[in-house]
Specification:
The chain is globular and about 55 Å long. It has 2 domains: 30 residues, no CATH class; 252 residues, Rossmann fold, CATH 3.40.50.150. By secondary structure, the chain is an alpha/beta fold. A 7-stranded mixed β-sheet has the order 3-2-1-4-5-9-8, with helices on both faces. Strands 6-7 form a two-stranded antiparallel sheet. Helices cover 34% and strands 15% of the residues.
Amino acid sequence: MQPRPPIVLERLRRKVLGPLFDRLGYDLVPAAPDWTHRPTSPREVARLLDAAADILHSDLRASGLRVDEDVRALVERFWHLIPTAPVRQRRGGSGFNGALQLYVAMRVLRPDFVIESGVFRGLTTWVIRQACPEAQIFCHDPDLSGLQYRDGQARYSREDWSRADWSMLDPARTVAFFDDHVSQARRVVEAHVRGLTRLLFDDDAAAHRIHAHGGPAHPTIAMITTLDASPEPIRWTRNGRPFEQPAGDAEARQASDLIVRSHAFDDMHRATGYSPARLTYVELHGGSP
């Protein structure tokens, strides 16, 4: 389990700093991951794990993925594994649900190579490593200064993944994971050109829900797969800043034609009580490596 903050600092936060920040219109909360809050009675833990496993099994089946492992056993393994995570994050990055989905998906996909675009503090790299201990991981992020976990076997780069030479990889044994706040249509097209067919996306929000996500990539997979002939662009505001996704986006239509199937995983909140996740699996037509 991760250490608790010193009691003196916790009292200072509650009695002095918290009220001060509240008057300024901000919340001051400990940087404790959501998984540090958990049921401890065996009956309730079993209920949580059973519910999570049922949802994940349905999502994997809906994604068209072959499941050779006991999903319930994978969920329980992750339950005991996540408290040892070397990354502390409360805001931004993956929480329990997102990390669990990524762990189980990677166990089922069994890639030999993983391309990760968007690393942030390194939690998802750690999760991928736990799920695929023998895989070669390639981590791409323009800013690696915030890493709390650096994988000793992974290759790191500040260049965009699309600039790298992937000719040495077998696309059939590769999975790309995108959590980089870049147009998901662009990532689909780039992946197809490189022969990749198995993709995972974080932060895939439907158009009517995208306002609730901070700085999301757009168009999202949900937008791409629900294209219609409406000339009306999609507009929303976030923290007073206006955003717009134009209608008739040519790249979005190109990406739509490349997708064989996509499935947005359940957000898992009803099963675990943790913050909702937004993982989507995408299968593409064979590319042209």
